[in-house]
């Protein structure tokens, strides 16, 4: 889109590089270019015969094959087709590119296949290649001897390629090899500096020759099957900076030669089977700044030399078998920031003034406790330690994502600002934070009972997240105005009941109010009109009984409005005043009792859904809190844990709306999802719905629509889900583009429709579809099953609109499973004929 055709000199276009003398195009970089669709084998791209560099990484070529014509670029030195959703067999002609210096055809899926003989040919012919990256390509072969031809190779990445057999000695004879990655496969010399064999199934003992890799600075053997003793030659790797041996089966003692690794910065021995005493030479590692000895079988006392590691800033030693007292020399480790121990602590630990993260479980320590404690994402069980809750000097406390079950009280004092206990197993009543607290997260626990009104003593709270607990009864009325700073109030997924008693003052700063998934009754609080900063309002899945709160249109920042599954009733009267909803991007009024015509005037004034220029792709929320919302897809609520600002949806399904579909909807060109199903809408499908260029899901099912399906809908190239079932549509089903991917279920219950994919012919101009043709279409069309989650991650990595949210698109990957219900006599006859011809449509049974 950035190419300006009015500029006749294409050498000035983004991504285009030309030869300064000849003017020939020699470089083309369209990586992350949002290119989409199948790759045409006759593309004019292949006329650029002077091309030397070509980068098409991170696009979406819709599972098309890599054309053979890529092998015709005789001058090509750099080719990058990574993560662009190519599939199928990689053509052998790629190996004809004898001038290649860099080749990257990585894939995040398992769809790209490099045949073993093509792999051997590739390694045989690319004698000048320096970088070869085949991550995720299905090779399913052993490393051939022709690998030794790649004398210029410096970087070889064969992660997740299904390599088989044993690692060959020839790989260590590549003279310039610096980086070798074989991670994730089921089965170096002198200049090799990076060796990652983690998560491989290479077994037996680690050879003594590992010590010959004198240039090695990174060695990762974690989660491998190597066994036996760690060879003494490990100490010869004098250039080694990082050594990872976690989750290995090495036995015996850690060799004394470990102390020779004077350049070592990081040593991870966690979850190993090494035993015996830790050698005194461990103290010689003067450059060491990270040491993990957790869950090991080392015994005896820790050597006094541990105090020599004066560069150490992170030390983890949990559930080890060390005996005796920790040496007093630990007090010399004045660079320590993180210390996690489970033994009695010497008084000299008081010298460690830089500690910011500290775990001292089962100790009687009375010395230094830092003001900031972050122990989130660990495996801490049981009661919150008293040495944490009893410290008045704390300012930040984060114990989220653990297995804590109870807490007697939160820390006291006037300093605590942030408390985060979300995602634990806490039970009992709500612990009340001190008045100094600004951020209080305690969601996703098992807390119960009422919310005490004393919570309102925290007068400066900005974020209060009590969601996903078992709280019940009414909420205290003070929650609406107890803090003039309150921005987030999340009470989602509890068992609160009664009317919503909240009263919001004129100068409040509320930005997110989420009461979804409770038992609230009564009307919507009128004082919400005072919330001028409100962006997200979610009252879904309650028992609220009210008419449509049209006055919410006065809120200038409102972007998300969810009222689904309540008892709202009456018409959506859009004639009362000038209420714009100008920034609204997500509106869900489904599963209520609204009646009357669809609100034309609102569709006219949904400005955010009409914008031709997309807003900057970012997530709704702040640095401390990401907004989330549940969106209905195919009748199931799916949690969007983060909301992209480019995502737009209208869901008015399962109400009692009548009349025609307004043409005004066709102007909402930024819309991604439109669901008007399960109403009593009449008339024809507006042809201008074909203008909704970004639409991905269209559901008009279970209405009383008549007439033909507009051919204009075939222009919706992003459309992945179409449901027009259970209406009174007639005529031929449009053909071409996305309509060739939709199946019978999209049109079920419309007796007047004909043409593919249905078996009913359209007059004499189209023969009945053959069973084999239908089955072939199902088997060969990856697109028919919808976008895969892997394509979404690619889009997200490049900032593409395709990465709207992971959970929604992962749901689309499942094919619909329902049987076309045959009602009229004519369709019964068709069914009989299909049965006689042994027609079977695969995978369409409930």
UniProtKB/TrEMBL annotation:
Keywords: Glycoprotein, Leucine-rich repeat, Membrane, Receptor, Repeat, Signal, Transmembrane, Transmembrane helix. The keyword Repeat applies. It is a single-pass type I membrane protein. Residues 2-19 form the Leucine-rich repeat-containing N-terminal plant-type domain. One of its GO terms (cellular component) is membrane. Residues 191-270 form the Disease resistance R13L4/SHOC-2-like LRR domain. InterPro entries: Leu-rich_rpt, LRR_dom_sf, LRR_N_plant-typ, LRR_R13L4/SHOC2-like, RLP23-like. It is found in: Membrane. Its main location: membrane. Pfam families: LRR_1, LRR_14, LRR_8, LRRNT_2. The keyword Hydrolase does not apply. The chain crosses the membrane at residues 787-811. This is Receptor like protein 35. It comes from Actinidia rufa.
């Amino acid at each position: 889109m950035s190419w300006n055709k009015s500029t006749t000199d294409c050498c000035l276009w983004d991504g285009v590089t030309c030869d300064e003398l000849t003017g020939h195009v020699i470089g083309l970089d369209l990586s992350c270019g949002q290119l989409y669709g199948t790759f045409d084998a006759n593309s004019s791209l292949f006329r650029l015969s002077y091309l030397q560099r070509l980068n098409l990484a991170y696009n979406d070529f819709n599972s098309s094959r890599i054309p053979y014509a890529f092998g015709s670029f005789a001058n090509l030195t750099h080719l990058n087709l990574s993560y662009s959703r190519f599939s199928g067999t990689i053509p052998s002609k790629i190996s004809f590119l004898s001038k290649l210096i860099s080749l990257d055809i990585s894939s995040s899926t398992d769809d790209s296949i490099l045949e073993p003989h093509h792999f051997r040919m590739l390694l045989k012919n690319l004698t000048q290649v320096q970088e070869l990256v085949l991550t995720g390509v299905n090779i399913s072969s052993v490393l051939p001897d022709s690998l030794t031809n790649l004398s210029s190779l410096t970087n070889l990445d064969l992660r997740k390629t299904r390599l088989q057999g044993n690692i060959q000695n020839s790989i260590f004879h590549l003279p310039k090899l610096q980086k070798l990655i074989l991670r994730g496969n089921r089965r170096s010399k002198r200049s090799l500096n990076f060796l990652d064999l983690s998560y491989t199934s290479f077994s037996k003992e680690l050879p003594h020759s590992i010590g010959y890799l004198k240039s090695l600075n990174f060695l990762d053997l974690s989660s491998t099957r190597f066994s036996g003793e760690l060879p003494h030659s490990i100490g010869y790797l004098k250039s080694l900076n990082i050594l990872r041996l976690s989750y290995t089966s090495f036995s015996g003692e850690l060799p004394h030669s470990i102390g020779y690794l004077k350049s070592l910065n990081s040593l991870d021995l966690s979850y190993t089977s090494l035993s015996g005493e830790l050698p005194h030479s461990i103290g010689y590692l003067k450059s060491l700044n990270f040491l993990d000895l957790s869950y090991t079988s080392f015994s005896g006392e820790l050597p006094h030399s541990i105090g020599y590691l004066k560069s150490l800033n992170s030390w983890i030693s949990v559930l080890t078998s060390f005996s005796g007292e920790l040496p007093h020399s630990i007090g010399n480790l004045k660079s320590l920031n993180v210390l996690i121990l489970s033994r009695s602590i010497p008084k000299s630990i008081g010298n460690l003034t830089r500690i910011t993260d500290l775990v001292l479980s089962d100790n009687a320590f009375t010395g230094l406790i830092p003001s900031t404690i972050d122990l989130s994402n660990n495996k801490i069980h049981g009661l919150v330690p008293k040495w944490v809750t009893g410290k008045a000097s704390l300012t930040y406390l984060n114990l989220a994502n653990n297995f804590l079950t109870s807490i007697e009280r939160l820390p006291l004092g006037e300093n605590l600002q942030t408390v985060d206990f979300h995602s634990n197993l806490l039970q009992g009543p709500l612990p009340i934070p001190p008045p100094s607290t600004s951020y209080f997260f305690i969601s996703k626990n098992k807390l119960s009972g009422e919310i005490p009104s004393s919570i309102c003593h925290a007068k400066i709270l900005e974020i209060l997240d009590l969601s996903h607990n078992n709280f019940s009864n009414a909420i205290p009325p003070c929650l609406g105005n107890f803090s003039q700073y309150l921005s987030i109030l999340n009470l989602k997924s509890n068992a609160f009941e009664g009317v919503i008693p909240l009263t919001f003052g004129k100068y409040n700063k509320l930005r997110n109010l989420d009461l979804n998934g409770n038992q609230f009754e009564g009307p919507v609080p009128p004082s919400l009109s005072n919330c001028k900063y409100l962006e997200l309002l979610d009252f879904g899945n309650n028992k609220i009984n009210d008419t449509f709160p049209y006055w919410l249109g006065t809120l200038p920042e409102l972007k998300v409005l969810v009222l689904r599954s309540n008892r709202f009733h009456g018409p959506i009267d859009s004639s009362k005043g000038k209420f714009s909803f100008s920034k609204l991007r997500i509106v869900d009024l489904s599963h209520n009792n609204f009646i009357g015509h669809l609100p034309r005037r609102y569709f006219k004034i949904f400005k955010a859904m009409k914008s031709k220029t997309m807003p900057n792709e970012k997530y709704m929320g702040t640095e401390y809190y990401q907004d989330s919302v549940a969106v209905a897809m195919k009748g199931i609520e799916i949690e969007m844990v983060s909301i992209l600002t480019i995502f737009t949806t209208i869901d008015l399904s399962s109400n009692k709306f009548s009349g025609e579909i307004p043409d005004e909807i066709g102007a909402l060109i930024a819309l991604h999802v439109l669901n008007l199903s399960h109403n009593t809408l009449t008339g024809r499908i507006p042809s201008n719905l074909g203008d909704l260029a970004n639409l991905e899901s269209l559901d008009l099912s279970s209405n009383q629509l008549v007439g033909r399906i507009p051919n204009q809908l075939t222009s919706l190239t992003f459309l992945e889900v179409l449901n027009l079932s259970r209406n009174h549509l007639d005529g031929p089903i449009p053909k071409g583009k996305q309509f060739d991917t939709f199946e019978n279920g999209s049109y079920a219950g419309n007796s007047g429709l004909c043409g593919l994919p249905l078996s009913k012919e359209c007059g004499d101009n189209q023969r009945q579809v053959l069973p084999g043709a239908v089955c072939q279409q199902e088997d060969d069309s990856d697109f028919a099953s919808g976008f895969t989650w892997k394509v979404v991650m690619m889009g997200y990595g490049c900032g593409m609109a395709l990465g709207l949210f992971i959970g929604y698109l992962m749901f689309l990957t499942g094919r619909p499973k329902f049987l076309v219900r045959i009602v009229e006599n004519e369709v019964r006859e068709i069914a009989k004929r299909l049965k006689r011809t042994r027609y079977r449509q695969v995978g369409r049974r409930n």
